[in-house]
Design a protein that fits this description.
By secondary structure, the protein is an alpha/beta fold. The chain has eight helices and seven strands, in the order E-H-E-H-E-E-H-E-E-E-H-H-H-H-H.
Length: 209
């Protein structure tokens, strides 16, 4: 079973400051998490994020008290003994922990993902091959372009209106099916966002009439 976590404003800890930690930090920020990084040193990008106040940074080695108030932890120290200690401390406290160089020591995986606004497409190999997951994600990125974010915002707004204005569940389902029929999806996939939006609005209005 796979689940998505609601991360906005959740405090997340990344132990490590190298390139792998940088990628994990960027992924957490993309989902609205509040990120704290603990490491003796940082990449240039992470240093810029810390200087801008985008992430919280404590220079130094990992300590157990770094886990105070944390919702989720990423062990990306690049040193097995540190990641092992982080994993053990998190298990003892019942915290979510992902160890990037040894997924079996953690209790969740961070999938490769394509994010377009509210749309998230995750690709996971269960930790067996992050490289394959990344390559599949790269194939998906041009297929699901930025138009999906704007389209989904419109669809969400119309769905909320529909839930308020149409009481008949059968009618609601029929309208929603028409709003995301094959033609709409084909227009969207080919980048014809405005035509796709027009068809969705027409389906909504005609269904209510």
């Amino acid at each position: 079973m796979h689940i998505f976590l609601n991360l906005p404003d959740k405090k997340c800890l990344v132990v490590g400051g190298g390139p792998v930690a940088e990628r994990k930090v960027q992924a957490l920020l993309a989902y609205g998490a509040r990120v704290r990084v603990v490491s003796p040193a940082l990449t240039g990008c992470l240093s810029e994020l810390a200087a801008a106040g985008t992430i919280e940074y404590r220079r130094g080695e990992y300590r157990t008290d770094d886990l105070a108030g944390v919702f989720l932890v990423i062990g990306a120290a690049g040193r097995e003994e540190v990641n092992r200690q982080v994993a053990a401390d998190c298990e003892e406290r019942g915290l979510l922990i992902n160890v990037v160089d040894d997924p079996e020591k953690g209790n969740f995986f961070m999938p490769a993902h394509v994010k377009r606004g509210s749309l998230s497409i995750a690709v996971s190999t269960g930790g067996k091959s992050p490289l394959l997951a990344g390559r599949i994600r790269a194939e998906l990125e041009p297929v699901y372009g930025p138009q999906y974010a704007e389209f989904l915002d419109l669809l969400g707004d119309l769905r909320l209106q529909l839930m308020r204005e149409v009481a008949d569940p059968v009618k609601k389902k029929e309208i929603m099916n028409r709003m995301v029929d094959d033609e709409v999806l084909a227009l969207l996939k080919s980048g014809q966002l405005e035509r796709a939006k027009e068809r969705v609005i027409d389906a909504y209005r005609s269904g209510r009439g």
